């Protein structure tokens, strides 16, 4: 039961058209994905490990290319985009943060603006603004190295780096997965506030149903490389899909 | 010098240098472990404790030999004598360095240059190749396999291959640098490859995901993060090169190996140490310096620390530079350099290259030929001495050497591969005509002496058993051990024929080893029977006895100068000048000069000069 919202005002920023990706031996990793992500929404892709969520994310910024079908970003198939240009319009946050250990926090955040040759002064402004935005004191943190930060602080820097060049789209791959429960809750709350304010289109991967319910405007549930459910959190909870029920059941006992 | 002490000195030096610092490091780690334990950082405390334990063992392992050697000195009944001997050796080494400071400096600089050029080139080639392998992964196995093969080829064998390949550059620095370059490639390529592959995949994924091009990823992320691993590879390559470069002296590349080879030939521990100690210090210094550089560029180093290390390194370079400057300002060495090792003064006009094999007699003969050409014709002479095996002959054919002294019997059997003959004149005439036809080489008139193989046993054994001839000794041979130089074991007129002629058999298969070392092994009582050179000064010095060849097995070995014909055509005056040497060097002249160099440690150039002025008058 795949479904696209026919909301008149909504504009498709990312669209998957019958996308499949086969592994080298022909086993499908994702198959026949068709959905759209509309401007300003937070689409959370939920599923077990290996269900194809991260693969779907990488198809958006062309770290992977589909075997069949096409992924359309801002009206053009990714295959027609220059991969580098495409990626610089898309923020990317991953669980391990991928911060460069040999760069200071400031240089990490400045990465894409530097690649895009922004003027120095503007970059400095931007770093200050972003650190403040993610709740880190620029005076304290700008000159630190990633190893001098806690896990939560690192994730904040990771988010700031993804936002640096003001990309319209942001991809997040389990950004809070490695954090302790308290820090995670804190970051989720701040993240919800932030997205409400910034009006970015966000595709967010998680295996934590609690997180999905908290952050999503819509939830896409993956099972074995297929999109099993795609709906708002409220409807998702009532969908009756076997996998969705299994996920919701897990809420009762373990709080992880 | 007593052999027992020859091991004493180096071991004590090394252990004294190492065991105290190791102990101090152990104490530092132990203190740190305690502090961390008290601070409640148990994990890091355990780590420090582990290091302390390791360094404790290192310290004990190094200190124990000193204690044992001290004990041995006391037990020997003459502790004062032993200690005094060691002290005397240290003083001799020190005074050798002072007296030859210019030569030592220039050899060390040559050594450094060989290593720097070779590893520098290997880094320039190896790092890009390593990067390429990370981009074209399928290439990595074959390329690393090839680099691996280079590394396993023994250095002398590699030099042997390079001589014909490189033609006119076959000996000297070029092949040495090429060989060192090939040896350095593997660690550099491998470490670049594994260093880049070792970069956190999350970092690489983030970099690509944010739109870095492959080049940006490489320059801004992968290389900086892999740098410590790459430099570790460079450290390994450099240390290997410093060691291997000592062998480059065998093909006339100069460097500290000159002292080591010369020391081995002359049975002179001080000379060996004079080459080995600076080489070891150079390896340590190179390792340390590259370690510092690694620290400086490591991403986790703070800016302040980086500055400090840079200041420290700059100071080190300044001090070293100043020291070299002062040394070069000093008076010329009290002792002239025993060989012209620089070999780099290129005079625009006439120049010929004189070669020599790798033992004392050949150094002296090479020097006599060179000085005769210099003083009588004014043509400048480059000396390419110390060429092992048949490198002289090969270098002549390749055009790298214009003249050297060869022995008729060696030419007849080892080079021309004829069956041994005992008629001296027939052998010489055959050699002369064959050399002219086959190699386009001219054999000049014999110098006078003939240097044959000398079958040697210890003097005390000869006296006790009253042995005069090889036949006498053959009766005792089944209880003896023998050792021979590599070429004696394999050549036509060597061991196989000798064993047949005298019906010799030994307690075990004769050991094949370096010729100079067979003298030591015999003198030390490790073997009982060797084949040396009849004109060798060491025979007298080490109290060895030459058994008579009563069945006339060995062919005659008349020494004669061999020259390239095209060189003679270019400089006819050289033939004229060298005529003066024909028949002038007698057996006893040669033995006396060998003794002067080997036993009295006199300078080769000086000995040659005195001989030349004596025959003039």
From the structure above, extract its key features.
heterodimer, A: 256 residues, alpha/beta, six-stranded mixed sheet, four-stranded antiparallel sheet, 11 helices, B: 617 residues, MetI-like fold, D-Maltodextrin-Binding Protein, domain 2, five-stranded mixed sheet, three-stranded antiparallel sheet
Describe this structure as you would to a colleague.
The complex is a heterodimer of chains A (256) and B (617). Chain A has 11 helices and 10 strands. Chain A is globular. Mean pLDDT of chain A is 87; it is low at 1-8. Chain A is an alpha/beta fold. In chain B, helix 4 packs antiparallel against helix 9 (214-244). Chains A and B meet through helix 2, strand 6 and helix 4 of A and helix 8 and helix 9 of B.
Quantity of strands of chain B, as a count: 10
Helix content of chain B: 55-70%
Taken from the alpha-carbon principal axes, the silhouette of chain A is globular
Calculate the terminal CA-CA distance of chain B, rounded to whole Å: 37 Å
Count of individual helical segments of chain A: 11
Overall pLDDT confidence of chain B = 82
Average pLDDT of chain A? 87
- Low-pLDDT parts of chain A are 1-8
- How many domains would you count in the coordinates of chain B? 4
Largest sheet of chain B: 5 strands, mixed
Amino- and carboxy-terminal Cα gap of chain A: 30 Å
Strand order of the largest sheet of chain B: 7-6-8-5-9
Rounded to the nearest angstrom, the radius of gyration of chain A is: 18 Å
Q: Which class best fits the helix and strand makeup of chain A?
A: alpha/beta
* CATH overall fold name of the largest domain in chain B: MetI-like fold
Strands ordered across the widest β-sheet of chain A: 6-7-8-3-9-10
Helix content of chain A: 25-40%
DSSP strand (E) fraction of chain A? 25-35%
């Amino acid at each position: 039961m795949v479904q696209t919202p026919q909301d008149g005002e909504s504009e498709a920023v990312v669209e998957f058209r019958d996308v499949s990706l086969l592994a080298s031996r022909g086993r499908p990793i994702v198959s026949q994905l068709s959905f759209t992500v509309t401007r300003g929404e937070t689409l959370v892709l939920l599923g077990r490990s290996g269900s194809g969520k991260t693969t779907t994310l990488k198809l958006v910024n062309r770290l992977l290319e589909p075997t069949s079908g096409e992924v359309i970003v801002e009206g053009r198939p990714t295959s027609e985009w220059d991969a580098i240009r495409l990626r610089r319009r898309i923020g990317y946050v991953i669980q391990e943060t991928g911060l460069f250990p040999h760069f200071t926090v400031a240089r990490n955040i400045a990465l894409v603006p530097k690649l895009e040759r922004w003027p120095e002064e503007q970059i400095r402004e931007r770093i200050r603004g972003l650190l403040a935005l993610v709740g880190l004191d620029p005076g304290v943190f700008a000159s630190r190295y990633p190893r001098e930060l806690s896990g939560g602080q690192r994730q904040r820097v990771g988010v700031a780096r993804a936002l640096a060049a003001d990309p319209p789209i942001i991809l997040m791959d389990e950004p809070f997965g490695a954090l302790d429960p308290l820090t995670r809750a804190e970051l989720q709350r701040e993240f919800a506030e932030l997205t409400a304010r910034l009006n970015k289109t966000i595709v967010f991967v998680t295996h934590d149903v609690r997180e999905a319910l908290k952050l999503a405007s819509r939830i896409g549930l993956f099972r074995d490389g297929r999109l099993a459910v795609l709906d708002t959190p409220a409807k998702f909870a009532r969908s009756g899909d076997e996998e969705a029920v299994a996920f919701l059941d897990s809420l009762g006992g373990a709080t992880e | 010098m007593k052999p027992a002490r020859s091991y004493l000195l180096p071991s004590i030096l090394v252990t004294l240098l190492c065991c105290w610092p190791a102990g101090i490091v152990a104490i530092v780690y132990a203190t740190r472990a305690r502090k961390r334990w008290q601070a409640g950082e148990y994990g890091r405390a355990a780590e420090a404790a582990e290091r302390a334990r390791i360094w404790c063992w290192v310290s004990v392992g190094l200190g124990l030999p000193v204690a044992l050697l001290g004990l041995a000195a006391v037990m020997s009944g003459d502790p004062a004598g032993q200690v005094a001997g060691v002290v005397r050796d240290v003083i001799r080494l020190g005074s050798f360095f002072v007296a030859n400071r210019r030569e030592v400096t220039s050899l060390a600089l040559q050594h450094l240059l060989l290593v720097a050029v070779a590893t520098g080139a290997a880094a320039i080639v190896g790092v890009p190749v390593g990067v390429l392998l990370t981009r074209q992964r399928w290439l990595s196995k074959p390329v690393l396999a090839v680099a691996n093969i280079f590394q396993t080829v023994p250095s002398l064998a590699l030099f042997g291959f390079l001589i014909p390949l490189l033609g006119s550059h076959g000996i000297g620095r070029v092949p040495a640098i090429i060989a060192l370059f090939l040896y350095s490639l593997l660690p550099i390529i491998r470490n670049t490859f594994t260093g880049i592959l070792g970069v956190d995949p999350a970092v690489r994924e983030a970099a690509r995901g944010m739109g870095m091009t492959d080049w940006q990823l490489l320059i801004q992320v992968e290389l900086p993060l892999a740098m410590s691993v790459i430099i570790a590879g460079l450290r390994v390559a450099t240390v290997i090169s410093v060691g291997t470069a000592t062998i480059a002296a065998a093909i006339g590349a100069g460097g500290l190996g000159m002292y080591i080879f010369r020391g081995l030939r002359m049975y002179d521990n001080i000379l060996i140490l004079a080459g080995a100690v600076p080489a070891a210090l150079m390896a340590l210094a190179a390792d340390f310096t590259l370690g510092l550089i690694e620290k400086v560029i490591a991403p986790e180093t703070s800016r302040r620390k980086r500055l400090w290390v840079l200041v420290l390194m700059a100071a080190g370079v300044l001090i070293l530079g100043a020291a070299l400057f002062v040394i070069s300002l000093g008076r010329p060495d009290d002792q002239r350099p025993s060989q012209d090792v620089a070999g780099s003064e290129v005079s625009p006009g006439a120049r010929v290259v004189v070669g020599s094999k790798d033992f004392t007699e050949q150094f002296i003969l090479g020097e006599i030929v060179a000085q005769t050409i210099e003083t009588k014709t004014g043509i400048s002479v480059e000396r390419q001495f110390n060429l092992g095996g048949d490198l002289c002959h090969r270098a002549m054919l390749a055009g790298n050497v214009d003249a050297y002294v060869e022995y008729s019997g060696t030419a007849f059997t080892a080079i021309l591969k004829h069956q041994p003959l005992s008629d001296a004149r027939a052998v010489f005439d055959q050699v002369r005509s064959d050399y002219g036809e086959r190699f386009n080489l001219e054999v000049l008139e014999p110098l006078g002496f003939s240097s044959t193989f000398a079958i040697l046993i210890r003097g005390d054994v000869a006296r006790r058993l009253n042995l005069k001839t090889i036949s006498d000794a053959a009766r005792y041979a089944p209880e003896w051990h023998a050792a021979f130089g590599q070429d004696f074991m394999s050549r036509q007129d060597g061991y196989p024929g000798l064993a047949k002629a005298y019906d010799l058999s030994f307690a075990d298969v004769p050991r094949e080893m370096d010729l100079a070392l067979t003298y030591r092994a015999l003198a030390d009582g490790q073997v009982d029977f060797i084949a040396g050179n009849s004109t060798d000064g060491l025979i007298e010095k080490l109290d060895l006895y030459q058994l008579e060849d009563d069945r006339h097995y060995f062919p005659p070995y008349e020494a004669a100068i061999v020259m390239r014909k095209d060189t003679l055509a270019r400089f006819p005056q050289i033939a004229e000048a060298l005529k003066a040497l024909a028949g002038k060097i007698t057996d006893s002249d040669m033995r006396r000069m060998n003794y002067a160099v080997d036993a009295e440690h006199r300078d080769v150039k000086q000995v040659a000069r005195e001989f030349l002025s004596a025959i003039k008058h």
